[in-house]
Automatic annotation (TrEMBL):
Transmembrane segments: none annotated. InterPro entries: ABC_AA/LPS_Transport, ABC_transporter-like_ATP-bd, P-loop_NTPase. Keywords: ATP-binding, Nucleotide-binding, Transport. GO terms for cellular component: plasma membrane. SUPFAM superfamilies: P-loop containing nucleoside triphosphate hydrolases (SSF52540). Residues 61-192 form the ABC transporter domain. GO terms for molecular function: ATP binding; ATP hydrolysis activity. Residues 1-28 are annotated as: Disordered. It comes from the Bacteria. It comes from Pseudomonas amygdali pv. eriobotryae. This is Branched-chain amino acid ABC transporter, ATP-binding protein.
Length: 192
C-alpha cells in the first residue's frame, strides 16, 4: 500500500471518535434507520485505499488513502483542482475510481454500489449552495428535510411523531440552533 506524506495537523480529528466504536448509527448521528447493521467493529466507518481517478490523462486523485473513524468529523480542505469534489464523487458513487477500494464500514464496497444504494446505506451529500425555505422556521426546515413520503397526499396528512420531533430537537442541539428553532430560517447568518 502506497502512502502519501500527510502534515501532522491533518491527522488529528476535529471531533474525537466516539468511544462506543461499533455502534455506528448513533455514533455518527444517522438515527435508527440509516447504516443499520453496519459493521464497524474495528472503529472505522469509511476506508479509502489506493483510490485513483483520471480524467483524460489528468490524475484528479492519485493513490489516495483516507480512514475515518466512527464518530469522527473531518474537514477536507485544499485549493481548486486538488480533488476534493472528485473525492466526494467517489464516496457517493457519482464517479468510479480507476483503481482502489472504498468501504463503508467493513462490508459495504462503495465501488460496487450505485448512487441510490449508497444513499440508502446512509451516505449523503450537502452541496455548497445552501437551500433553505427562508420564510419557514428553522424547525420547519428540519421537518421538511426528514426522510418521509413527500407525495402531495401524504404531505397534506402528515403529522410528526414524537420520535421525529425528538430527532429534530436533537439535531437542533447538535448544531446549536435550539434557541433559534422558531425564527425564520432566512434571518440566520450563512454560517448558521
Amino acid at each position: 500500500m502506497k502512502t502519501t506524506p500527510t502534515p501532522s495537523f491533518m491527522l488529528e480529528p476535529v471531533l474525537a471518535p466516539n468511544s462506543d466504536a461499533g455502534t455506528s448509527r448513533d455514533a455518527v448521528g444517522l438515527g435508527k434507520s440509516a447504516g443499520k447493521g453496519l459493521n464497524t467493529r474495528h472503529g472505522t466507518i469509511l476506508t479509502l485505499e489506493d483510490i485513483s481517478v483520471s480524467f483524460d490523462g489528468f490524475k484528479a486523485l492519485n493513490d489516495l488513502n483516507l480512514y475515518i473513524g466512527v464518530g469522527e468529523l473531518r474537514c477536507i480542505i485544499g485549493p481548486n483542482g486538488a480533488g476534493k469534489t472528485t473525492l466526494m464523487d467517489v464516496i457517493t458513487g457519482k464517479t468510479r475510481p480507476s483503481h482502489g477500494k472504498a468501504w463503508f464500514g467493513e462490508t459495504l464496497d462503495l465501488t460496487q454500489m450505485s448512487e441510490v444504494q449508497i444513499a440508502q446505506a446512509g451516505i449523503g451529500r450537502k452541496f455548497q449552495k445552501p437551500t433553505v425555505f427562508e420564510a419557514l422556521s428553522v424547525f420547519e426546515n428540519l421537518e421538511l428535510a426528514q426522510k418521509t413520503d413527500k407525495s402531495v397526499w401524504a404531505s397534506l396528512r402528515a403529522r410528526l411523531s414524537g420520535e421525529q420531533q425528538d430527532r429534530i430537537r436533537e439535531v437542533l442541539e447538535t448544531i446549536r440552533l435550539t434557541t433559534s428553532m422558531h425564527r425564520p430560517a432566512g434571518l440566520l447568518s450563512h454560517g448558521q
